[in-house]
């Protein structure tokens, strides 16, 4: 695998199998398979004038229970990450890994001295003073939710600038660290709404912090970063007030169903319980590439996790999708016995 390769390369997969994209069951991409009800005619949008974002800021701020002054929008979560790393200009970065690979890429691109903490085996490892600390919660690629209250106190003692990535928190009933914003001056939180609202093609990422930090961040930002299409789609999605609970309930139900199918297959050494919409598994007697090859007749894609830090090619991430998709996966797993 390439060092920073991700899942979701569905068009290349379909081309290799000589099939249509809509025939592929994409279990490699952790995008919500439940979609909000959108009542919006894009043909009616006025795209002749420059976009304004007041309504979008108000909608997102209301969704997360924060003030508009406590957030800044970016052209996707990755853009928010790279902007923050560049803006902070710190020397050291600690990433609790394995983690979303764009963090490691950003640290390398901006010359940070990098420390990786294996959160599976050395969760309580120390960090250096004045570091930038990155913690993904729920984690990637295993979906575990951590209570990090004690860690926050320790990071504060170490004068760390902390970025907590909560891109998948909406799939859970757990609490955000937003409540610590008034107590922790150097706390930033990443919210990637497009994961939960099933819109990876709508590039909107949100950084949350105290108003002073956001003001300093905005001083070096361009005036226009999002299109009218991005803005209006998310506003329309947020108007579906029943979506949150429905999507969360369905994903939790199918998460349990998928976990049961995986555990009963006998093909895995370990199936990690997850609070998010994906599960990490460790294969018994084959590697990820061999496993992917055996799934191809069923047109199923899964994520090889061999390029994550502290993992190898015996690890695979499988996304939670529809019950029909899980049934096809079950058939595929039975064919491997």
From TrEMBL:
For this UniProt record, give its keywords in alphabetical order, as a comma-separated list.
Answer: Aminotransferase, Pyridoxal phosphate, Transferase
Q: Does the keyword Transferase apply?
A: yes
Which CDD domains does this chain map to? AAT_like
Q: Which domain of life is it from?
A: Bacteria
Q: Where is the Aminotransferase class I/classII large domain?
A: 47-334
Recorded hits in InterPro entries, A to Z, give: Aminotransferase_I/II_large, PyrdxlP-dep_Trfase, PyrdxlP-dep_Trfase_major, PyrdxlP-dep_Trfase_small
Q: Which cofactor does it need?
A: pyridoxal 5'-phosphate
Which Pfam families does the entry mention? Aminotran_1_2
Q: Where are the transmembrane segments?
A: none
User: In Gene Ontology terms, what is one molecular function of this protein?
Assistant: transaminase activity
Q: Does the keyword Transferase apply?
A: yes
PANTHER family in UniProt: HISTIDINOL-PHOSPHATE AMINOTRANSFERASE-RELATED, THREONINE-PHOSPHATE DECARBOXYLASE
Q: Identify this protein by name.
A: Aminotransferase class I/II
């Amino acid at each position: 695998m390439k060092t920073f390769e991700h899942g979701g390369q569905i068009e290349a997969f379909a081309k290799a199998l000589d099939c249509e994209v809509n025939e592929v069951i994409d279990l490699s991409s952790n995008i919500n398979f439940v979609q909000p009800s959108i009542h919006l005619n894009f043909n009616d949008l006025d795209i002749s004038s420059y976009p304004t974002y007041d309504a979008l800021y108000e909608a997102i701020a209301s969704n997360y229970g924060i003030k508009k002054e406590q957030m800044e929008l970016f052209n996707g979560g990755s853009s928010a990450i790279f902007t923050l790393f560049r803006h902070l200009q710190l020397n050291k970065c600690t990433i609790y890994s394995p983690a979303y690979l764009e963090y490691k890429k950003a640290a390398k691109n901006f010359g940070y001295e990098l420390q990786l903490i294996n959160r599976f085996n050395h969760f309580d490892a120390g960090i250096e003073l004045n570091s930038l600390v990155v913690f993904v919660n729920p984690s990637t690629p295993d979906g575990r939710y951590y209570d990090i209250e004690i860690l926050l106190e320790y990071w504060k003692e170490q004068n760390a600038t902390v970025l907590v990535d909560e891109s998948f928190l909406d799939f859970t009933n757990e609490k955000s660290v937003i409540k610590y914003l008034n107590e922790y001056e150097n706390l930033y939180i990443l919210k990637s709404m497009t994961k939960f609202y099933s819109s990876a093609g709508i590039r909107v990422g949100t950084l949350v912090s105290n108003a002073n930090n956001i003001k300093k961040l905005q001083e070096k930002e361009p005036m226009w970063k999002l299109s009218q299409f991005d803005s209006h789609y998310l506003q329309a999605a947020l108007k579906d007030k029943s979506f949150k609970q429905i999507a969360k309930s369905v994903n939790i139900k199918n998460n349990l169903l998928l976990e049961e199918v995986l555990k009963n297959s006998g093909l895995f050494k370990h199936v990690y319980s997850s609070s998010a919409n994906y599960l990490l598994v460790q294969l018994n007697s084959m590697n990820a590439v061999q496993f992917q090859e055996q799934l191809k007749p069923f047109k199923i894609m899964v994520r090889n996790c061999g390029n994550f830090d502290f993992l190898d090619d015996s690890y695979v991430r499988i996304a939670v999708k529809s019950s029909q998709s899980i049934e096809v996966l079950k058939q595929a797993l039975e064919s491997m016995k």
